[in-house]
Amino acid sequence: MIQRGYSERDIHLALDGELPPDDLAGFERWLAANPDMQALAQRYTQDRQQLVGALEGILAEPVPERLSRLAGAKPRAGSDSRHLFRYAAAAALFVAGGLAGYLVAPQFSSATPPLVQMADNAIDAHLIYSNEKLHVVEVGADQRDHLQGWLSKRVGVKLIAPDLKNQGFELVGGRLLPAGKKTAAQFMYQDATGNRVSLYVTRDETGADTGYRVLEERGARALYWLDGGYACAVAGSTPEGTLSAIADATYKQLLEDQKG
Amino acid sequence: MEERQAAILAEIPRMRRYARALLHDLDAADDLVQDSLERALTRLDNWRSGENPRRWLFTIMHHLFVDQFRRSKRRAETSLLPLDNSEAMAQPAVQFGHAANGEVLNALQKIGADRRAALLLVAVEGFSYAEAAQMLDIPAGTVMSRVSRGREELRSVMDDASRRRAIRVVEP
Question: Which residue among B2, B41, B123 sits closest to A84, beta carbon to beta carbon?
């Protein structure tokens, strides 16, 4: 058998599944004999994992209605195309199992996954209380220490109302909310023009660590995530960039406080 | 008809992922997906039965992206990244996720759009060179070189970013 020579090009081919099967063994031998090339191959593999991981959350986001309506709209009389999707979603849920159950677009499955449910609750609570004129919060920002202590005790995790001055938002105060059988804390913030954003936090027992995910509905959006025992959502009708900056500050301050 | 719509609907999450990675902006990405779906639905007849809906939809989406791109270039808008000018979007409008996620996605925006598209189609969406070639309307060899160059650029942009971070940490 004639041995062919290998080069960096083959690293890309192998990574992309384009290396002919007959060349694989030779390629592996070549890699083993060339530590530099092996390191490069590992690096590219790692970069790809990071890239795929960073984008994975998007698949789990619920499809915005303006898009799903386009593709699924106008079922003809006597038939409801949505049933079809529900079957498909249920089948996918079955196959994916508990591990990735929430990868299925939630509006098409009968059981909304807990994390999306949390974000949905956060948007509900935001829409209800941010539009409140007189009773926006139960405990005002003037009693910040009391507010943080009380909500930490009731929610069961150490909570702080993050400082969002750098993002242009001042704390208005907070309140305790029911979250299924648990409790949630809501901290309300307001900017100089009266725009409000709220932070919704519950205790997370899974210990999972997700990236940010986005849920958009009813004219509001929530950026939500799990980390360090917190399930958090930042909700508002502000641009995603603003929400994202608030989420970054919140994420950092919550975890710092937990360590300190 | 309804089977076709169901098949299209099932592809939306992937279309959103590709569009978001390409454009780095939630609203612009969903606009692109919406335009693609609208175009797809008016051209259902062009969809050959048995043809993979994903490939068909991604091809439509890519054509729209390129059109949009050319228009925005003519108008000299900076909302889309010019093909070979990485500085225009040094500060992306949207920061994604946690530090590591943000890092790789920011780096992705700094590589040329043609290489970014090829890299995403192959390395993230899992299309073969031949499939990507069909979608991008270029030879498979060109796909291969765009993917490998994109990968090299991504690595060097990420290395530069981590070097800059190291310098910041040293300077109090």
Answer: B2
